[in-house]
Give the backbone structure.
Amino acid sequence: MTMTLDTKPATIHSDRNPILPLDLGPVEDTKVNRSAIERRAATLPTRRSVKKEWQAAWLLQAVQNIDLTTLSGDDTEGTVRRLCVKARQPIRADLLKDLGLADKHFTTGAVCVYHGFVSTAVECFAGHRHSRGGGFDRLSGGIKSVQTKNRRDRSLGQSGCF
């Protein structure tokens, strides 16, 4: 199978985040033992599932790696605040106590909101370790110009993101 990609560098970029050409060399040079991979993959459905404390540990790790997102067109400050409260304490205190983890602090990995609600989210996390984030502009419409994107990014930085 042959794959061809256009690897010429893009002409529009910022000094803060330069675009580098795609180098597929490391991917193309990777060697795998296909029969060993297929043999191992075939055993996965027959293995026992993760049990007891290991299952709880895996689930707690998963919670810390998810992001809570509200990108609805009808978002309000109230919905953003509720999302932030959930991100600050995604696991009920009684469950953490039953697991012997009442003294531990778990949060989600991120909270994603539209640009217009970034200041609300930042305010909700003031003084909290989960204090940085990012904002999204309308995903379906995209950003019309590099200047608009750069203005928006500067605004997000001043709001406490990135």
About this structure: Helices lie at 25-28, 34-43, 52-65, 77-88, 93-98, 118-124, 146-159. The CA atoms of residues 8 and 122 lie 38 Å apart. Strands lie at 67-70, 110-114, 134-136. The first helix runs from residue 25 to 28.
